[in-house]
Amino acid sequence: MNIVVYTAIIGGIKDMPHRPACSHAPHDPVRFVCFSNRFDQADGWEVRKPVWQDADPRRTARWHKTHPEELFPDACYSLWHDGTHQLTVDPRRLLVDRYLPESSPAEFASFKHSLRSTVQEELKACIWMRKDDETVMRRQVLRYQQEGINCSGLFETSVVLRKHTPTVRTFDELWWNQIKNGSVRDQLSVNYAANRTDLRTAFLTGDRAKSPYFHFYPHN
Fold this sequence. Notes:
By secondary structure, the chain is of the alpha/beta class.
Protein backbone atom coordinates (compact mmCIF):
# COMPACT_ATOMS: atom_id res chain seq x y z
CA MET A 1 0.00 0.00 0.00
CA ASN A 2 1.63 3.21 -1.20
CA ILE A 3 0.53 6.29 0.77
CA VAL A 4 1.62 9.89 0.20
CA VAL A 5 0.95 12.69 2.69
CA TYR A 6 1.32 16.07 1.02
CA THR A 7 0.74 19.80 1.36
CA ALA A 8 1.56 23.03 -0.46
CA ILE A 9 2.84 26.26 1.08
CA ILE A 10 3.01 28.91 -1.62
CA GLY A 11 4.11 32.55 -1.17
CA GLY A 12 3.43 34.80 1.80
CA ILE A 13 4.22 34.03 5.43
CA LYS A 14 0.94 32.50 6.60
CA ASP A 15 2.19 28.99 7.36
CA MET A 16 5.29 26.97 8.17
CA PRO A 17 5.54 23.25 7.43
CA HIS A 18 5.08 21.33 10.68
CA ARG A 19 7.16 18.19 11.10
CA PRO A 20 4.90 15.11 10.97
CA ALA A 21 4.47 13.87 14.55
CA CYS A 22 3.50 10.33 13.68
CA SER A 23 4.97 6.86 13.31
CA HIS A 24 4.22 4.08 10.86
CA ALA A 25 5.26 0.50 10.24
CA PRO A 26 8.75 0.20 8.68
CA HIS A 27 7.44 -2.24 6.08
CA ASP A 28 4.72 0.22 5.04
CA PRO A 29 6.58 3.48 4.35
CA VAL A 30 4.81 6.80 4.02
CA ARG A 31 6.12 9.66 1.91
CA PHE A 32 5.74 13.25 3.09
CA VAL A 33 5.91 15.82 0.28
CA CYS A 34 5.63 19.60 0.58
CA PHE A 35 5.32 21.72 -2.56
CA SER A 36 6.71 25.18 -1.88
CA ASN A 37 8.35 28.16 -3.53
CA ARG A 38 9.39 29.47 -0.11
CA PHE A 39 11.41 26.60 1.35
CA ASP A 40 14.24 24.46 0.02
CA GLN A 41 13.97 22.08 2.95
CA ALA A 42 11.65 21.39 5.87
CA ASP A 43 12.09 18.98 8.76
CA GLY A 44 10.41 15.68 7.99
CA TRP A 45 9.35 16.67 4.45
CA GLU A 46 10.58 16.09 0.94
CA VAL A 47 10.34 19.63 -0.48
CA ARG A 48 9.53 20.06 -4.17
CA LYS A 49 9.06 23.13 -6.32
CA PRO A 50 5.50 23.78 -7.51
CA VAL A 51 4.60 21.84 -10.63
CA TRP A 52 2.09 24.47 -11.81
CA GLN A 53 1.79 28.13 -10.84
CA ASP A 54 -0.77 30.89 -11.07
CA ALA A 55 -0.57 34.58 -10.23
CA ASP A 56 -2.83 33.81 -7.26
CA PRO A 57 -0.86 31.63 -4.80
CA ARG A 58 -4.11 30.18 -3.47
CA ARG A 59 -4.96 28.79 -6.89
CA THR A 60 -1.42 27.41 -7.19
CA ALA A 61 -1.85 25.53 -3.91
CA ARG A 62 -5.24 24.23 -4.97
CA TRP A 63 -3.91 22.92 -8.27
CA HIS A 64 -1.64 20.67 -6.21
CA LYS A 65 -4.50 19.85 -3.85
CA THR A 66 -6.64 18.59 -6.73
CA HIS A 67 -3.99 16.71 -8.73
CA PRO A 68 -2.65 13.89 -6.51
CA GLU A 69 -2.99 11.31 -9.30
CA GLU A 70 -0.74 13.37 -11.57
CA LEU A 71 1.72 14.26 -8.82
CA PHE A 72 1.98 10.72 -7.42
CA PRO A 73 1.11 8.24 -10.20
CA ASP A 74 2.39 5.28 -8.18
CA ALA A 75 0.33 6.06 -5.05
CA CYS A 76 -2.73 4.06 -4.03
CA TYR A 77 -3.81 6.63 -1.43
CA SER A 78 -3.07 10.27 -0.72
CA LEU A 79 -3.68 12.47 2.28
CA TRP A 80 -3.71 16.22 1.71
CA HIS A 81 -3.63 18.62 4.64
CA ASP A 82 -3.29 22.38 4.78
CA GLY A 83 -0.17 24.03 6.17
CA THR A 84 -2.12 24.73 9.35
CA HIS A 85 -2.12 21.03 10.26
CA GLN A 86 0.35 18.56 11.74
CA LEU A 87 -0.34 14.86 11.33
CA THR A 88 -0.05 13.00 14.65
CA VAL A 89 -1.13 9.43 13.79
CA ASP A 90 -0.21 6.55 11.49
CA PRO A 91 -2.10 7.53 8.30
CA ARG A 92 -2.57 3.94 7.19
CA ARG A 93 -3.81 2.35 10.41
CA LEU A 94 -5.91 5.23 11.75
CA LEU A 95 -7.08 6.92 8.56
CA VAL A 96 -6.98 4.69 5.47
CA ASP A 97 -7.91 1.47 7.29
CA ARG A 98 -10.66 3.22 9.22
CA TYR A 99 -12.27 5.42 6.58
CA LEU A 100 -11.35 3.90 3.22
CA PRO A 101 -10.92 0.17 3.94
CA GLU A 102 -11.11 -2.38 1.16
CA SER A 103 -14.42 -3.61 2.60
CA SER A 104 -16.01 -0.15 2.20
CA PRO A 105 -17.09 1.58 -1.01
CA ALA A 106 -15.87 4.95 0.34
CA GLU A 107 -13.08 6.52 -1.70
CA PHE A 108 -12.91 10.08 -0.29
CA ALA A 109 -13.04 11.42 3.27
CA SER A 110 -12.86 14.88 4.77
CA PHE A 111 -14.18 16.78 7.78
CA LYS A 112 -17.82 17.78 7.96
CA HIS A 113 -18.00 21.55 8.23
CA SER A 114 -18.52 22.50 11.86
CA LEU A 115 -20.26 25.84 11.15
CA ARG A 116 -22.12 25.49 7.86
CA SER A 117 -24.05 22.72 6.14
CA THR A 118 -24.87 24.05 2.65
CA VAL A 119 -23.05 25.79 -0.15
CA GLN A 120 -25.50 28.70 0.16
CA GLU A 121 -24.37 29.24 3.76
CA GLU A 122 -20.74 28.99 2.64
CA LEU A 123 -21.39 31.59 -0.06
CA LYS A 124 -22.81 34.05 2.48
CA ALA A 125 -19.79 33.55 4.76
CA CYS A 126 -17.32 34.00 1.90
CA ILE A 127 -19.04 37.22 0.82
CA TRP A 128 -19.08 38.56 4.37
CA MET A 129 -15.36 37.74 4.84
CA ARG A 130 -14.48 38.95 1.31
CA LYS A 131 -12.80 35.68 0.43
CA ASP A 132 -13.20 36.16 -3.33
CA ASP A 133 -15.00 38.21 -5.95
CA GLU A 134 -18.67 38.32 -4.94
CA THR A 135 -20.01 38.28 -8.50
CA VAL A 136 -17.94 35.22 -9.42
CA MET A 137 -19.05 33.32 -6.31
CA ARG A 138 -22.73 34.21 -6.70
CA ARG A 139 -22.76 33.22 -10.36
CA GLN A 140 -21.12 29.89 -9.58
CA VAL A 141 -23.51 28.91 -6.79
CA LEU A 142 -26.51 30.05 -8.86
CA ARG A 143 -25.41 27.68 -11.63
CA TYR A 144 -25.25 24.81 -9.14
CA GLN A 145 -28.80 25.62 -8.03
CA GLN A 146 -30.04 25.79 -11.62
CA GLU A 147 -28.49 22.40 -12.35
CA GLY A 148 -30.35 20.96 -9.37
CA ILE A 149 -27.21 19.56 -7.75
CA ASN A 150 -27.53 18.83 -4.01
CA CYS A 151 -24.67 20.63 -2.27
CA SER A 152 -25.69 19.98 1.35
CA GLY A 153 -23.60 18.11 3.91
CA LEU A 154 -20.77 20.56 3.38
CA PHE A 155 -17.19 19.28 3.52
CA GLU A 156 -14.43 21.26 5.21
CA THR A 157 -11.45 20.49 3.00
CA SER A 158 -8.41 21.39 5.08
CA VAL A 159 -7.84 17.60 5.12
CA VAL A 160 -8.66 15.34 2.17
CA LEU A 161 -8.09 11.58 2.20
CA ARG A 162 -8.40 9.82 -1.17
CA LYS A 163 -8.29 6.34 -2.62
CA HIS A 164 -6.92 6.73 -6.14
CA THR A 165 -9.79 5.28 -8.14
CA PRO A 166 -11.08 6.29 -11.59
CA THR A 167 -14.04 8.04 -9.96
CA VAL A 168 -11.75 10.05 -7.69
CA ARG A 169 -9.68 11.14 -10.70
CA THR A 170 -12.85 12.28 -12.48
CA PHE A 171 -13.95 14.11 -9.33
CA ASP A 172 -10.56 15.84 -8.99
CA GLU A 173 -10.66 16.96 -12.62
CA LEU A 174 -14.13 18.46 -12.20
CA TRP A 175 -13.25 20.04 -8.84
CA TRP A 176 -10.17 21.70 -10.35
CA ASN A 177 -12.18 22.89 -13.36
CA GLN A 178 -14.56 24.70 -10.97
CA ILE A 179 -11.63 26.34 -9.14
CA LYS A 180 -9.81 27.25 -12.35
CA ASN A 181 -12.82 28.81 -14.07
CA GLY A 182 -14.75 30.02 -11.05
CA SER A 183 -13.99 30.89 -7.44
CA VAL A 184 -10.71 29.95 -5.82
CA ARG A 185 -12.76 28.96 -2.75
CA ASP A 186 -12.64 25.19 -3.14
CA GLN A 187 -15.31 24.58 -0.48
CA LEU A 188 -17.87 26.21 -2.76
CA SER A 189 -17.30 23.53 -5.39
CA VAL A 190 -16.27 20.34 -3.57
CA ASN A 191 -19.80 19.09 -2.85
CA TYR A 192 -20.90 19.95 -6.38
CA ALA A 193 -18.04 17.96 -7.89
CA ALA A 194 -18.63 15.05 -5.51
CA ASN A 195 -22.32 14.80 -6.32
CA ARG A 196 -21.87 15.27 -10.07
CA THR A 197 -19.45 12.33 -10.17
CA ASP A 198 -21.29 10.08 -7.67
CA LEU A 199 -18.22 10.10 -5.45
CA ARG A 200 -18.53 7.74 -2.48
CA THR A 201 -17.63 9.75 0.59
CA ALA A 202 -17.15 9.60 4.36
CA PHE A 203 -16.71 12.16 7.11
CA LEU A 204 -13.60 12.15 9.28
CA THR A 205 -14.09 12.35 13.04
CA GLY A 206 -13.69 15.86 14.43
CA ASP A 207 -13.25 19.09 12.54
CA ARG A 208 -10.52 21.38 11.27
CA ALA A 209 -9.60 22.81 14.66
CA LYS A 210 -10.09 19.72 16.80
CA SER A 211 -9.56 16.15 15.69
CA PRO A 212 -7.88 12.99 17.00
CA TYR A 213 -5.51 12.92 14.01
CA PHE A 214 -4.03 16.41 13.69
CA HIS A 215 -2.76 19.35 15.64
CA PHE A 216 -4.13 22.63 14.29
CA TYR A 217 -2.04 25.81 14.13
CA PRO A 218 -3.93 28.95 13.01
CA HIS A 219 -2.41 31.02 10.21
CA ASN A 220 0.38 33.36 11.29
